[in-house]
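User: I'm putting together notes for a lab meeting next week and I want to include a structural view of one of the chains we've been expressing. I don't have a solved structure, so I'd like a prediction I can at least talk through. The sequence is below, exactly as it appears in our construct file.
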Amino acid sequence: MTDSPKAQLLDAIKMHVPFDGWTRPAYQAAVADTGIDPVLASAVCPRGAVDLAIAFHQEGDAQMVMRMAEPDVAEMKIREKITFAVRTRLELVEDKELVRRGMTLFSLPQNAADGTKLVWQTCDAIWNSIGDTSDDVNWYTKRATLAGVYSSTVLYWLGDESAGHEATWAFLDRRIENVMQIEKMKATVRKSPFLSKLMAGPNAVLSHIKAPSRLNDQGLPGHMAPKSQS
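Assistant: Thanks for the context. Below is the predicted structure for the 230-residue chain, given as structure tokens.
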């Protein structure tokens, strides 16, 4: 089966990004390398290299989800699955420079929303692959907490020169442990007669928050989508 034009462009641009970044020159080089008609290339990638950088990130997410669906992962505990998912997501990257250059791209004001969306999508994909069924405020808190873990781990990984990235995996374990401590604290509150009564009011308010049935067309939860202008 022949790859789609966007897939061909994505494959071609990867060799140029380490030198030129996710930029117009790299995009133009990819178009030239593939021999795709520039008009067709513009149709499938209206924003050029930005669209290909997004496709690169989403490609990694899709590969991670496929790995998470394998039988050996099903036997893991929740904590192990989360750790495995984040580690797998990073190990799937063939060249750190592609991610490093991507972070530079998505740090620009005009692309910041895309960067936020991609991190959220990754964390949502991880929780969904684990089988998360939450439909209340926990839907948001789980993904927001994991976004913090994932983002900080990526930054650490980019600067890690240890053998086999062992320092990164140790860092990830510590971050996951911090999250688990928060979950243990929440469980303690629920079990405590005094604390549970103290939190009755806030919990009643939070209980009315429902998870979106799906992400909006910006790839963000409904409450994070920019308001339309009438």
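A couple of points you could mention at the meeting. The chain has two domains: 1-46, 58-224. Residues 166-191 form the longest helix (26 residues).

User: Perfect, that's what I needed.
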